Amino acid sequence: YEARSYFYHIFKKTKDNKIIAYLDEDDHFIGFVQVVNYLSILYISYLAIETNYRNRGFGTYILNDLRNTYSSYTLCLCYEEVNEIYHDYLNRYKREQFYLRNGYKRCDFKTREGEVIYQVAKYGNDKLDFNIYKNLFDLVYGKDSHKIYLKEVKV
């Protein structure tokens, strides 16, 4: 799927930012997830599964592992907007269905990051609005990054 133009920030380490790698029983790399905690919300800013391991349950395994490890948190993430106007509509639709099958619910706002619109979704009961999301975004991408990259899109 489309990479964010400021992808290099993903590996920036802050005290609230963790990158967790997952390996199989033979120590082969399966994928990784980057998470940031803010208040009682765990933001999954990036989830990547190695191509050879996709569609084999590893994405669900990682989401379940995060739910169990951070059971007192509301988890949130975002994915590219699903709309038939996009050339990669089917991939976007499958990605959204994956998250919905795993218990995530769409929030009542989307974000525009550069030219890309993202649907924000959460798993859990904590309030998640655009102002909270802005703070999470800044933890991942740097102080006041939301002023440059992030705009709210009403649903």
Number of helical stretches of at least 4 residues: 4
The rough form would be described as globular
Mean pLDDT: 86
Instruction: List the strand order in the largest sheet.
Output: 1-2-3-4-6-5-7
Number of strands: 7
- Give the N-to-C terminal Cα separation: 22 Å
Using only C-alpha atoms, the radius of gyration works out to: 15 Å
Uncertain ranges: 1-13
Order of helices and strands: EEEHEHEEHHE
Helix amount: 25-40%
Largest sheet: 7 strands, mixed
Structural class: alpha+beta
Percent of residues in beta strands? 35-45%
Please write out the topology.
Blueprint: E1 17-23, E2 29-38, E3 41-49, H1 58-69, E4 74-80, H2 89-101, E5 105-113, E6 116-123, H3 130-141, H4 145-149, E7 150-154
Give a description of the structure:
The protein has 4 helices and 7 strands, in the order E-E-E-H-E-H-E-E-H-H-E. By secondary structure, it is α+β, with helices and mostly antiparallel strands. It has a 7-stranded mixed β-sheet with strand order 1-2-3-4-6-5-7, sandwiched between helices. A hairpin with a 5-residue loop joins strand 1 and strand 2.
